[in-house]
Amino acid sequence: MRRTNYLEVTSDLDDCLANLTFSCSAELSIGDLLGKWCGTTTNYTFTHSELIVTPLQGQSLKYGRHLAIFKIEGRSDRIAVHWSDKPDDFTTFEFSTDKKQLIQMEQQEGDKGARRVFHRC
Questions:
Q1: What is the CATH number of the domain that holds 96?
Q2: Residue 72 lies in domain
């Protein structure tokens, strides 16, 4: 290696290390969702095939108590639960760093749901 290429090599190495760190981050999966999550107005129970919604204040549910899970897409920072094969029919969730809180992101499309925070229960 010649000295004149040091900055170029260092830059390439930094890029390589940044990509390596990113690619090693574990993707979220349905295993992170499984179980019961308690919220302020509803509780969620995720199984491998469905979401069971339990209202806490007697409100009616727009889509019923049982929602079939069509597909799960996980990334390192969030997970999308697809309810059908329609491209806009999904809900995005994030987790706290300790994975004890589940944050349902506000939806601008579809049923336009509010941001909701759940905790393991």
A1: 2.40.128
A2: 27-120
